[in-house]
Amino acid sequence: MPDLLLELFSEEIPARMQRKAAEDLKKLVTDALVEAGLHYEGAKAFSTPRRLALTVSGIPTHSAATHEDRKGPKVGAPDAAIQGFLRGAGLTSLDQAHIHSDPKKGDFYVAHIHKPGSDTKDVLANAIPAIIRSFPWPKSMHWGTGKLQWVRPLQSIVCTFGPETEEPEVIDFEIDGIRSGNITHGHRFIAPSAIPVKRFDDYVDKLDNASVILDADRRKDVILHDARDRVFALGLELVEDEGLLEEVAGLVEWPVVLVGTFEEEFLSIPPEVIRATIRANQKCFVVRKPGTTELANRFVLISNIEAIDGGEAITAGNGRVIRARLSDAKFFYDTDLKTRLEDRLPKFDQIVFHEKLGTQSQRILRLQKLAAAIAPLVGADVDKAKRAALLAKTDLVTEVVGEFPEVQGLMGRYYAIAQGEDESVAAAIEDHYKPQGPGDRVPTDPVAITVALADKLDTLTGFWAIDEKPTGSKDPYALRRAALGVIRIALSIPAKLPLNVALAHAIDGYNDQTESEALTDYEGAQSHVSRDDVDGEQDLDNALESFGRRLRRELDAKTPEIIADLIAFFADRLKVQLRDQGARHDLVDAVFALGNQDDVQLIARRVEALGKFLDTEDGKNLLAGYRRAANILKAEEKKGESFDGAVDAAHLRLSEERALHVAIATARAEAEGAVAREDYEGAIAALARLRAPVDAFFEAVLVNAEEPEVRANRLRLLNAIRSATLTVADFSKVSG
Predict the structure, then answer these.
(1) Can you give the residue ranges of the DALR anticodon binding domain (predicted)?
(2) Is this model's pTM higher than 0.70 or not?
(3) Looking at the DSSP assignment, which residues form a beta bridge with residue 302?
């Protein structure tokens, strides 16, 4: 069957846009084919700095004819309905429709729509220009006098279609003066001449001979292996960087690896700053001494040409720029070292954290108070935690972080160590932002854990207090990430972290701040009272005290609602986290439904134990028995009856109900004791022993007995089953 080759050749496409653009092109073209009734065998898209390319194989030459019977309104329906039916079916009058009869529904109109197949070349000639004109570039431009919008000026289009055994045809169309053809171009400098191409294999081979590697993954592989080999020959090791590798593969069509040098004096700069400088400014890799984190004074750059001098001029030029940038970085670093971190704190008085949440200085004070409250919960030194919280944000106003924001926190640790701070304090300054994503590491030092939790909990409670919560896909303040960070930390530490307590401390910090600001404003408004007047001063003090108490009551009254809403938010995030670890989200619901569940470690353990149990035969059968009991109770409770009372042993007629009564009492007592010891596996094991007596009860006992007292007693026995399971989870939330 015939294949399609499409190439859109332009000026340089930004590297960050190439991958998605290639996939967008594939989707748009293949969707158009499928919509036209043309199914294909396979499609693959490619990108280089100057072209998007697509090959679609196994496309039929014609689409099949289609037949559709479209049902319309009843005979005699209003004219508006008739006209809508005609328009939808593509008919000009009712004479073109048919009347069908239905014994129940009467006569109605039916349109027998026949669509003949389309020639694939016609489909492509119509679809591809439309796709090009409406292509979803993040940013686009137009040039000259044309109207076409494209990421960079489009220069030529290759579009051929035909079977492998024949000469393919050019799909002829024109866009803004650019006519499709079969001519492409090789490397801009090495082989710029026009190249006629036929089908995809021919196209790839000719580009390869013209110094263009079409496949971005192949370019990445060439870069990575050549770079490793070049630095290995120098006795060094490449510092690999997947993001940079992806970017430079999008900057070159014919990658050539070169190695340059810079002065050793620059190695006194922190290695992360060296790497950020070289990466950001020149898109170059750094190298290190094998088996260490110590950088060497070399860099690896990727050229787009094979220079006649072996790349010496290119390397020298890049080296000059890198030396200038490293010189700037060294100046910034040396300048930063001259000022102690705490001496930078006054700058935060003028930096607003959020217009409704105060300045960064106020936030730092909140973090100190919150860290002091959280430290005992996680076994951290309170004084060190307060010191770390005080200094955690100070590197944000340093020269280096101003130039390279990505090293915030890290530079704080360097500066803290340089001024003699405790190692735990320095580690906390670096790690308090962590974890920032699912692949980021979790802090391990207790002081770092404390400040990291304080930072995230302060953010969450603050934005919750001003009702700036995530909505749908919008989360401008990364609150979901903050909640997941708290959860990951809580799951990683040996100590229990009661979220209710931690959140209450965080909200107290905002309430203290709000109260202080309100009292200051209130006192200013009462400025007519003279401080020289003793009675007036006492009146003002009394008024301030009364105002403060009233305000605090109002603030504290809102706290439980904020905490409850945040706990629900954490529950949703915990579902995501546990689901990623293989747990079922409905089991998280089953545990949270018990209420007062605010320790994610214990919740996770309960969920794990419950999941293991429900995967067993005992678990499945007990769940089935629970549901049978719950359904019977639900039906009876709809009548307004309640069965919460104790079971009367005197009304237990059969041995199976007596055995179940004893088993429930025993299992419940054992399960409650196990839960109190936080032995959830033991609690589940106790409930598991109910499986046999529950099965026997439903096999032998008629719940709705004729005697009212026996019936009510048996329903209370079913309620006892339901209540017993609530010791570990709400089984009504379990799906399946």
Answers:
(1) 624-723
(2) yes
(3) 257
